[in-house]
Amino acid sequence: MKLELKGITKRFGALVANDHIDLVVEPGQVHSLLGENGAGKSTLMNVLYGLYEPTEGEILVDDRPVTFNGPSDAMAAGIGMVHQHFMLVPVFTVAENVALGNETTKLAGMLNLEQTKRRIREISDQYGFDVDPDAVVEDLPVGVQQRVEIIKALIRDAEVLILDEPTAVLTPRETDELLGIMRQLTEDGKSVVFISHKLREVKAVSDVITVIRRGKVVGSADPSASTTELASLMVGRSVSLNLNKAPATPGEETFVVENLTIASATGPALLDGVSFGIRRGEILAVAGVQGNGQTELTEAIMGLQDHVTGSIRLDGEELVGRRTRDIINSGVGFVPEDRNVDGLVGTFSVAENLVLNRYDQAPFARGVSLRPAVIEANAAEKITEFDIRTQSAATAAGTLSGGNQQKVVMARELSRPLQLFIASQPTRGVDVGSIEFLHRRIISERDVGTPVMIVSTELDEVLELADRIAVLYGGRLMGIVPADTSRDVLGQMMAGMSADEATAQHTDSKGGAK
């Protein structure tokens, strides 16, 4: 099936999310849409899937114009979509989820799940999915849940499958398996629209790459193009993707976590006996698939979690039981994973956000009175130092781009001498150019002797920044390994294997290959 978009424009008030986009997806092709978060990729696919009505333009299927009034129309035309956040009912079985919206019945109106189970087994066997129709979805690994979403589309005879940031929640091994599935689908004549901002994956699987920037198609690229070329197309200027950093020269271990446990009232502990230390002048990167205890770990350190047992010591002082304000004042800089919820006050100015952690202290306050001139002077200095793109220091922080919002948070947290710096998902939703800048600032903080903890679900980022890597799975620490540990070993650890087991298996497989 040939799919074509002609002049697709989507406006939300004054915001133009898609601006006259032309796109052709040929049968049997992986067509990748590459662009940073906020570039308009997902909006375009939501138009294609009938979730949004285009402001202008038309959609053609096999050269015939079509109109989609909802996802059911798109599915009827042979288009399926796997959303970044899965549309599954956790307590239902695989078969029940697949049947939803596509129910077949027996006599007397009884649901015919046997027919659905048979089709699931057929598709699972055809593509090597290994999905049990009777399994309850909430008991399945994330990668298998994603396969259930793909089965939902294929059982409805999808000829074009849209995958929206499908690798965001997968381990490296699951990612490689998904890329293989995409190839199998195209070999069967189906087409895949792969939406991503991950250059390595796009290069590995694509037949055609279309780059979108600020709602417009800015060019096409061959999969053989270098990552530097692709990054430059995405950002609109030359970008260096190689972070040149000197080897760490660690000092004494000043931050120590011992047997940290967070109890849960409804199930297993959110964190279970986690212990590690960080030395001055080194970066410990915490890796893992989202939802394995990383958020709870940073919140426990910052005094934002209840039911915490164990010990968290900074320079010999116990942090467990202390208020968040006291922890900040002890010299902890913290970049939270969701800047819009926890990092910024969107309606406050850039200048005000830059002093949120010290607004009541000298030199920004005298007694109970703020000193506006000093706050403005601080903002002018930080705007220049961190290259924050804003009309003025008085601009509301919530109106800035994601990358510039993150620079505001980073500038605030790095504006004073620190005893510990924690950054959770430091470049989430940030363009390639801003990533380059933020990574350099993190390395600079390490190089002045600060212990640094980075939490990231992006394995490329972990490998780029880390001096050592800790992997969390199910709230437990699988081990701490050197920064040059292979992706295969890290992937096994992210799937629940201990460091020793993963390393031994990797060594055995290399030996077997010889």
TrEMBL record:
GO cellular component, one term: plasma membrane
Gene Ontology MF term list: ATP binding; ATP hydrolysis activity
CDD domains associated with the record: ABC_Carb_Monos_I (cd03216), ABC_Carb_Monos_II (cd03215)
Annotated keywords: ATP-binding, Cell membrane, Membrane, Nucleotide-binding, Repeat, Translocase, Transport
Record's keyword annotation contains Nucleotide-binding: yes
Cross-referenced SUPFAM superfamilies: P-loop containing nucleoside triphosphate hydrolases (SSF52540)
Stored Gene3D superfamilies: P-loop containing nucleotide triphosphate hydrolases (3.40.50.300)
Domain of life of the source: Bacteria
Residue intervals of the ABC transporter domain: 3-239, 255-499
InterPro entries given in the database record: AAA+_ATPase, ABC_carbohydrate_import_ATPase, ABC_transporter-like_ATP-bd, ABC_transporter-like_CS, P-loop_NTPase
Protein topology in the membrane: Peripheral membrane protein
Main localization category: membrane
Protein location: Cell membrane
Descriptive protein name: ATP-binding cassette domain-containing protein
Top-level taxonomy: Bacteria, Bacillati, Actinomycetota, Actinomycetes, Micrococcales
